[in-house]
Sequence to fold (349 residues):
Amino acid sequence: MRCFSLAILVLSMTGQVALADTGVGFKQIEQAEKGNDRPLKISLWYPANETVTKAETVGENPVFYGLGVEQDVLAAPGRHPLVLLSHGYGGSWRNLNWLAGELVQSGYIVAAPDHPGTTFQNMDDAEALRLWERPRDISRTLTAVLENTSLAGEIDDGKIAVIGHSLGGWTAIELAGGRYQADRALKDCTGDVMPAQCKDLKLMARIGIVGGGKARPELSQDLKDKRIRAAVSLDLGPASGFVPDSLAGIDIPVLVYAAGHETAEIAAIKNDSEYLRQYLPASSTVYREIADATHFSFVQMCKPGSDKIIDEESPGEGFVCRDGGGRNRADIHREIADGIVSFLHEALK
Fold:
């Protein structure tokens, strides 16, 4: 997760290019609630009601490709299923911008908050400590789009799913009903062989798993959102703190994607996905490992030579743009998107 320090660098640069008509509406809003000290920046993608000959490109910079969208256009009529996206530590809405476009093309409305404290525009340690607020960010986003159809269109409230990458996968499982006990995650943090999350206790403290050398009890609260009918985890972490009984009791379909190509920089995150597979109900869980995917194969597509650009600016972190086999990231994305759309079609019937 430390590798998103790199994203802070490269995503701070912006770019726009005119593209052909896409039919993907896009807007961004700020959600502030009275008595809540955690304002949210929310990005929305949705089927557009009008088309243009040129579209703005959002989420693009010299390193990453963006997505062609129609800014602030009216939403297409009719009720649409909704997918909520949760980014990883230090990431933002840009990371799954590509997937949002794929989902809109399949008829979905998509909404993604930037989680305060763990997004590259706001890496505030005090906010990051409140890790349990991440699932609440998603629930607040869901409430906002359900209550105001002028934002992205009318939502079929019986067809709502959440998708999360890395720490966003943790967020998705919390919303599905997983209960996290930090002391479980810490119990094996001794000896020569330790879970991946134990190898950076400073990071664990920064994101609120530990505080003052002890497990934070606030993480044990129930953060399930019963309005969510399906969940997708993309190479999540951390997972070992989830109580097995709580995972076994999840009563909605779950799709778990694991990256099969481990790198020295991202230590054994696949173990976290396998932990889910071990305890989630077999009858309602789909587990898929992509052999040539790395942890960062799930984020936006890199431009040719981007790994070298990144290494020049942040030595040793160009692996963010490298995948694990002969296929390029576009092919991996195609597999992921097709798998997710197929899963959601069945799960949200």
User: Anything to note?
Assistant: The first helix runs from residue 4 to 10. DSSP finds eleven helices and twelve strands in the chain. The longest strand covers residues 154-165. The CA atoms of residues 13 and 61 lie 6 Å apart.
